[in-house]
Design brief:
By secondary structure, the chain is mostly beta strands. Helix content is 15%, strand content 45%.
Length: 109
């Protein structure tokens, strides 16, 4: 199965949604929950920690940029040397100082 066909099962309060992994732009920690941001649509809040999604999505090209955010590197528009990332959904995020080198090497051309 290629990356275009992989889907993630997201159980939420309004039912279970099956989201293609390549449409997820980022995952945001909310204590014991995670807010999943997708390309076209509202974010989905799921009762799993960010660590759970890090284990599931690292192989699909997701990078932890600090303790509260994980991004899909296929949705990066711009990376500034000071550690600022701009994503295709318009998000502007800051990479933690501790993870700058790791993120830079993960997204280097």
């Amino acid at each position: 199965m290629n990356d275009q066909q992989k889907r993630l099962c997201l159980p939420s309060l309004d039912g279970t949604r099956y989201i293609p992994v390549n449409t997820i732009t980022r995952c945001e920690a909310l204590s014991n929950y995670t807010r999943i941001h997708i390309e076209k649509g509202w974010p989905i809040i799921v009762c799993h920690t960010l660590r759970y999604f890090e284990e599931k999505l690292t192989e699909a090209g997701f990078i932890r940029i600090h303790r509260g955010q994980m991004i899909n590197k296929n949705h990066i528009l711009k990376y500034e040397p000071c550690g600022i990332l701009q994503l295709t959904d318009g998000s502007v995020l800051t990479v933690s100082r501790r993870r700058k080198r790791e993120v830079f090497h993960a997204i280097a051309c």
